[in-house]
Amino acid sequence: MDNTWRGLSGSPVPDLIGTLREWQRTSSGQLHLGTDSKNRGTRTHFVTALAVLSNGRGGQVIYRSIVTPRMHSLAQRLIHEASLSVEVATELYQALDLDIVIHIDANEDLRHRSAKYARSLAGMGLGSGFEVRLKPDAWCASHVADHVVKEKHVRAA
Predict the structure, then answer these.
(1) Under DSSP, is residue 9 helix (H, G, I), strand (E, B) or coil?
(2) Is residue 17 within a helix (H) or strand (E), and if so which, with residue range?
(3) d(CA 47, CA 67)
(4) pLDDT of 5-60, one tens digit each?
(5) Cα–Cα distance, 79 to 106 (Å, whole number)
(6) Would you give the DSSP letter of residue 151?
(7) Is the terminal CB of the chain with fewer CB neighbours within 10 Å at N or C?
(8) Are 43 and 68 in contact (CB under 8 A)?
């Protein structure tokens, strides 16, 4: 997998900024962004998803996949997920001045392993000037990016 932004059909999105400008005209005004990851063999796959909700018409999604050597530590993976999200949000904000909401794939509920990292991860986004959502409200990371990283969007030929 490469660093190319794609639609859910797998088609490349050659002009990310132009696509997002078009989305701005037909959307609710917020760009939702989240990253999820999955270990596969000796590699870790990260997917960052961008979603815009269109008033009364559903929404649109594009994503980017990045593969790294396997990250064994949950903390390392979660920090990398949040870093990727903040990095993309910062680049997009500088280019488009969008209202961006970062969705962090961590839950403050102590029953979850990610709970001890949730506040620190949220602080990464908040400290960068973005609105942040944690699970269970972090749907862009826990559902959209998760859907892509698990390859549920790929249809059998």
Answers:
(1) coil
(2) helix 16-26
(3) 9
(4) 999 988 999 999 999 988 887 776 689 999 999 999 999 999 999 999 877 667 89
(5) 10
(6) T
(7) C
(8) yes
The CA-CA-CA angle for residues 60, 34, 91, to 5°, reads 90
Q: What is the H or E stretch that residue 127 is in?
A: helix 115-127
CA torsion sign, 137 to 143 to 144 to 145? positive
Report the distance separating Cα 33 and Cα 85, nearest Å.
7
Q: 30-40 and 99-107 as β-strands: parallel, antiparallel, unpaired?
A: parallel
Structure tokens at 11: 């088609």
Domain boundaries, the chain: 5-147
Token duo for residue 157: 């030929």
Fill in the DSSP letter of residue 154: P
pLDDT of residue 23: 85
Please name the CATH architecture into which domain 5-147 falls.
Answer: 2-Layer Sandwich (3.30)
